[in-house]
TrEMBL record:
GO terms for biological process: proteolysis. The keyword Protease applies. This is Carboxypeptidase. Residues 1-30 form the signal peptide. Keywords: Carboxypeptidase, Glycoprotein, Hydrolase, Protease, Signal. GO terms for molecular function: serine-type carboxypeptidase activity. InterPro entries: AB_hydrolase_fold (IPR029058), Peptidase_S10 (IPR001563). It comes from the Bacteria. Pfam families: Peptidase_S10. Gene3D superfamilies: alpha/beta hydrolase. The keyword Protease applies.
Length: 518
């Protein structure tokens, strides 16, 4: 079964193609004639064979690329989800082989980022710090975790080549119907849990140890999926990996939200050599330990006091916040000690005529002028789209042989997104409590200003307030940003951390999933 392009001059279509009811048309035309429309099959794959040398081992693997339907309660296909599934081939006991299920975020982002830059067998062709170089494309990833786990990269509805399907009458659901079906915190988790069940069943992976990995909003997704898979599909996991996590429903507001930014501000200022000589001379982690202690013990209580601070206390706090953030005392005082991230990205290097990136503050931008309270654009995102977009379009078509005229959505139309009733953090906690096998790894970049690393630490502290599962929650930090794996050194170390997490969370032979009496 192959992908097709229909138009008025089309030749007879092969009998192997799916029926029109299972074809997706993302475009519509007011004209009466049969205009050319790109369509994609709801259930169709291409399999290719490859070799890799990863973590010092050489082996063969297959890449299964294509679509698998989302089914409703009546068994009708409502969407086609595009995925790529990598399987190592020299595996004797597939039931013992871990399966890693990977999601990116947005919401509305394709799986491209981690697929061709992090855990997959290919990595983006960029320089050692993650900046674009030509010719665009991918190269072998010797640090991929494919040596220890098979991996499936999943694109939620309207991302990548995934699309909503028409009903049996050929009609597309309304925008409001689509939102209820797919575009919200809980709708997203519900249909993806069903899709994973189908995938695991089709590929005979029910006995395998299973892991979810999500980046950014993908951490909200996989946190919710942990409980949904467990309590609705009876599918139990060994691990959940949160890469650059969102708040996952664990609220950080007011003074906590403001105070938690300071360690990130310090890391970014240190990177750009905007601190005083005494701080600049310290190693980053040494500096951050000092700033974190100040944040929790002094800055947070001061912000909580608000207007009750004396003038002397206010000036003392402003001086120290300025010292750690690279901003001036006067600027901190004018902001009432509460610095917004957008202002920081504009202000830190204003005197140099540069802005810093949001998702990765190592990246620099140039604005039209130096006034204002926020940058004109996100310097890091333009750089990433510069290199990722041509690479994924080339890789899927020319190396994985998946040919279609449907546009690959780096960011797809999924808004307005229903963010109500976001209890995904609590869902993850409950899944861990019910499943003694389930462990969590959190990975964050120190220069990420969108989902900052200290917020991620805060999340690990409040994911299980009792502290009784603290030994099953690990945190790792990296000297890069939101996509820490774009930096060559962190591509290796972050994959090694995932590899170790997988290897150490598979229970020993005969080890039962139970709590011991104390």
């Amino acid at each position: 079964m192959r992908l097709i392009l229909m138009n008025v001059f089309s030749k007879a279509i092969s009998a192997s193609c799916v029926t029109a009811a299972l074809l997706l048309s993302p475009l519509s035309f007011a004209d009466d004639y049969d205009a050319p429309v790109a369509k994609i099959a709801a259930d169709d794959v291409v399999v290719t064979n490859h070799r890799a040398t990863i973590n010092g081992e050489r082996f063969e693997y297959t890449a299964t690329t294509g679509t698998q339907p989302v089914f409703n309660d009546e068994g009708e296909a409502t969407a086609a989800l595009f995925f790529t599934y990598y399987e190592r081939q020299d595996v004797k006991n597939r039931e013992q082989r871990p399966l890693l299920i990977s999601f990116n975020g947005g919401p509305g982002s394709a799986s491209v980022w981690m697929h061709i830059a992090y855990t997959g067998p290919k990595s983006l062709r960029v320089d050692d710090e993650g900046f674009p170089i030509m010719p665009y494309g991918v190269k072998d990833n010797p640090h991929s975790v494919l040596d220890v786990a098979d991996i499936v990269f999943v694109n939620p509805v309207n991302t990548g080549y995934s699309r909503v399907l028409p009903n049996a009458e050929g009609e597309m659901p309304s925008k409001e119907e689509q939102k209820k079906m797919f575009f919200g915190v809980n709708a997203d988790v519900d249909y993806l849990a069903d899709w994973i069940n189908t995938f695991v069943t089709r590929h005979e992976r029910w006995r395998s140890p299973k892991y979810l990995i999500g980046e950014s909003y993908g951490t909200t997704r996989v946190s919710g999926l942990a409980l949904a898979l467990q309590n609705r599909q009876w599918m139990y996991l060994n691990g959940v990996i949160l890469v650059s996590p969102t708040e996952i429903g664990i609220e950080r507001q007011g003074p906590v939200e403001a105070a938690n930014r300071l360690p990130y501000f310090a890391a970014t200022a240190w990177y750009h050599k905007a601190l005083g000589d005494d701080l600049q001379g310290k190693d980053l982690t040494e500096l951050l330990n000092e700033v974190e202690s100040y944040t929790l013990n002094t800055y947070l209580p001061a912000l909580a006091k608000g207007a009750s601070l004396t003038e002397g206390e206010r000036e003392q706090i402003a001086a120290q916040v300025a010292r750690f953030s690279g901003l001036s005392e006067q600027t901190v005082l004018r902001a009432n000690l509460d610095i917004s991230p957008r202002f920081f990205w504009k202000e830190l290097l204003r005197d140099r005529g540069q802005t810093v990136g949001r998702l990765d503050s190592r990246y620099l931008g140039i604005d039209r002028d130096d006034v204002g309270d926020s940058p004109d654009y996100n310097a890091e995102l333009t750089s990433w789209l510069h290199s990722f977009t041509p690479a994924i379009n080339y890789y899927l078509r020319e190396e994985l042989n998946y040919v279609t005229d449907v546009k690959y959505n780096m960011f797809g139309p999924v808004h307005p997104w229903d963010r109500s009733n976001n209890n995904t953090g609590e869902n993850l906690r409950q899944a861990m409590a019910q499943n003694p096998y389930l462990n969590v790894l959190v990975q964050s970049g120190y220069y990420d200003g969108a989902t900052n690393y200290f917020d991620a630490k805060y999340t690990t502290w409040h994911l299980d307030p009792s502290g009784r599962m603290a030994d099953r929650i690990d945190f790792e930090g990296y000297r890069s940003g939101h996509m820490m794996y774009l930096r060559a050194e962190d591509l290796e170390s972050a994959n090694n951390d995932v590899r170790e997490f997988i290897n150490t969370t598979i229970p020993a032979a005969g080890e039962a999933a139970k709590y011991e009496s104390k």
